[in-house]
Each structure stands twice: as structure tokens, then as C-alpha cells.
């Protein structure tokens, strides 16, 4: 669905090679895939996200969205429609006085027929479990609810891909859970392609694939089990691993033979029960 080829990006002309915000990135994102991008602060995750819907354009290399080059201005609106972005702060993404007006904002700008917009708004709100709040003012919702409304606003444009840049960073644990459940459902049940940037490793564990960034490069990429089993390498980058993976590594250091690829509490319980 998205093809990133030899992509480099510099915010300021003349930036030395080693300080490029993105430095020769190659990545293929398949339709229906759930990919998580992790990496220390300043490693280029947000810059990469903004390249996916032409908010930023490559300094070198190219980004193709369903075959459309993001640098070709004639594709701009179709690319923006197909690749919807959700950002960290839901308050910056909600503009209207009622939830349903907010969700209608995107399709209205696309010039879609009002009857069709109504259908889309209902469908999008239902998809994130917020239909019953459609007449509520967004500012009275919780953080998790606001973020789900922001996601519904993107869904109403019928995107092929959802790019989320730390959508849970400002939420409490309950809000995080709600938003993650909505994202996973959209991916698993509706087949939406998801690119999710996060610093919560438990969220990354739920993905099909994890890409790790450092200083503008992708330094590791693979299924979460494989990536998180490299506890040392991740710690060297200043990153955490899911709690259970860390526990598995500590147990292994003490000579307890559990698998290094454990990600969840259930898997840990099973592994420990098998020891006895
Ligand atoms: P991350 O999302 O992983 O924290 P960013 O993509 O925000 O990383 O930043 C990557 C690099 O680009 C960092 O060195 C950052 O300082 C720089 N950068 C980000 N935004 C800008 C900007 N608007 N102008 C100049 N440099 C920027």
C-alpha cells in the first residue's frame, strides 16, 4: 500500500549526512498490516509519519501511496484522503461544537453529498463505539473519547490507511485502552492498514510488525516477538521492552529456561507452568 524508497529528509538545507531527520529509509507497508514504529525521541518517527500523507515531501528518494508519488501535486488530495492522520493531542483535532459536526468536517471538505455524509458519520462513530455521543459537545468528553472522535473524523473520509502519531500519549490508562481497542478492531475487523507510532511497548507488542528507528534510520524491523527478544539492543537505544519480555530476560539470566519471546502475561503463566 505504501512504498518508501531510499527516503531522506532534512529540515534545513546543508544538514550533514549524519544529522538528517530521515536517512535513506526503505520500508514497504502492506494493505491490512498493523505496523508499529518505535524509537527514542528525535529519531525521526513523526517526520516519517508526515511523509506518508505528503505533509512533508522527500529531500531524496520517494514515497508511493497505492502507486501515487507524494511529490506529484496532482495526487495530493487523493493521498490525504487515503492516508488519514491522528495526532497526539485530541484537543487540537476537534473544532466543532458537536461530535457529529466534527466527524462531518472532513467529508464536507471533500464536497460529499449531505445524505452520504450522514451515513458516513454514523458509521464512523459506530466503528469507534461513540455513536451515542453524537450530539455531545466534544470538549466535555474524556481524552480517550475525544481521541476516538478524532479517529472517526478520519474514518469518515473512507481512508485506506490510518497513521497515528502517539495517539495515546496524553491519555490515562483507561483512555489508552479504549483507543487501542478501537484501533485493533479497525485493523482486524475492517482491514484498515494501521501505522502506529508509540512509546508504549505493550501497544507495540500487539502489532504485526515493529520498526525501530534511531537517528533517522530504521535499525531493526520484524515481528514484535523477534524485536522484543533483543532486550539488550533495545535498552542500549534507551527503549523499554514489554514488561513480560523483560521478566523473561531476567529469569533467563538467573538460569530459568523460559522463552525470550514471551510478550504477554498469559504466555508467561503458561511458560512457568510448563517448567514444573
Ligand atoms: P521523533 O518523532 O522520533 O521524536 P522527529 O521526527 O520529531 O522525531 O524529529 C527528527 C529530527 O528532526 C530531530 O532531530 C528533530 O530535532 C528534527 N526536527 C523535527 N521537526 C523539526 C522542525 N520543524 N524543524 C527542524 N528540525 C526538526
From TrEMBL:
Keywords: ATP-binding, Cell membrane, Membrane, Nucleotide-binding, Translocase, Transport. GO terms for biological process: cobalt ion transport. The keyword Translocase applies. InterPro entries: AAA+_ATPase, ABC_transporter-like_ATP-bd, ABC_transporter-like_CS, ABC_transpr_CbiO/EcfA_su, Co_trans_ATP-bd, ECF_ABC_transporter_ATP-bd, EcfA_1, P-loop_NTPase. It is found in: Cell membrane. It is a peripheral membrane protein. SUPFAM superfamilies: P-loop containing nucleoside triphosphate hydrolases. It comes from the Bacteria. NCBIfam families: cbiO, ECF_ATPase_1. Part of an ABC transporter complex. Responsible for energy coupling to the transport system. Probably part of an ABC transporter complex. Responsible for energy coupling to the transport system. PANTHER family: ENERGY-COUPLING FACTOR TRANSPORTER ATP-BINDING PROTEIN ECFA1 (PTHR43553:SF24), HEAVY METAL TRANSPORTER (PTHR43553). This is ABC transporter ATP-binding protein. It comes from Calderihabitans maritimus. The lineage of its organism: Bacteria, Bacillati, Bacillota, Clostridia, Neomoorellales.
Amino acid at each position: 500500500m505504501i512504498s518508501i524508497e531510499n527516503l531522506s529528509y532534512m529540515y534545513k538545507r546543508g544538514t550533514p549526512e549524519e544529522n538528517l531527520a530521515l536517512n535513506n529509509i526503505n520500508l514497504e507497508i502492506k494493505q491490512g498490516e498493523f505496523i508499529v514504529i518505535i524509537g527514542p525521541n528525535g529519531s525521526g518517527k513523526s517526520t516519517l509519519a508526515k511523509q506518508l500523507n505528503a505533509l512533508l515531501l522527500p529531500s531524496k528518494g520517494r514515497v508511493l501511496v497505492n502507486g501515487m508519488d507524494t511529490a506529484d501535486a496532482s495526487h495530493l488530495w487523493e493521498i490525504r484522503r487515503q492516508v488519514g492522520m491522528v495526532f497526539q493531542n485530541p484537543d487540537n483535532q476537534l473544532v466543532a461544537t458537536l461530535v457529529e459536526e466534527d466527524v462531518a468536517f472532513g467529508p464536507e471538505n471533500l464536497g460529499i453529498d449531505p445524505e452520504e455524509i450522514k451515513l458516513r458519520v454514523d458509521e464512523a462513530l459506530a466503528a469507534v463505539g461513540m455513536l451515542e455521543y453524537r450530539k455531545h459537545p466534544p470538549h466535555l468528553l474524556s481524552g480517550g473519547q475525544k481521541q476516538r472522535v478524532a479517529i472517526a473524523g478520519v474514518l469518515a473520509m473512507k481512508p485506506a490507511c490510518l497513521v497515528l502519531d502517539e495517539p495515546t500519549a496524553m491519555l490515562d490508562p483507561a483512555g489508552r485502552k479504549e483507543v487501542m481497542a478501537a484501533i485493533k478492531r479497525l485493523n482486524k475487523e475492517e482491514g484498515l492498514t494501521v501505522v502506529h507510532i508509540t512509546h508504549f511497548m505493550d501497544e507495540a507488542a500487539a502489532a504485526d510488525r515493529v520498526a525501530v528507528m534511531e537517528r533517522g534510520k530504521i535499525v531493526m524491523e520484524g515481528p514484535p516477538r523477534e524485536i522484543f527478544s533483543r532486550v539488550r539492543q533495545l535498552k542500549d537505544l534507551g527503549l523499554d521492552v514489554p514488561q513480560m519480555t523483560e521478566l523473561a530476560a531476567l529469569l533467563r539470566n538467573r538460569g530459568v529456561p523460559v522463552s525470550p519471546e514471551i510478550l504477554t502475561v498469559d504466555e508467561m503463566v503458561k511458560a512457568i507452568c510448563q517448567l514444573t
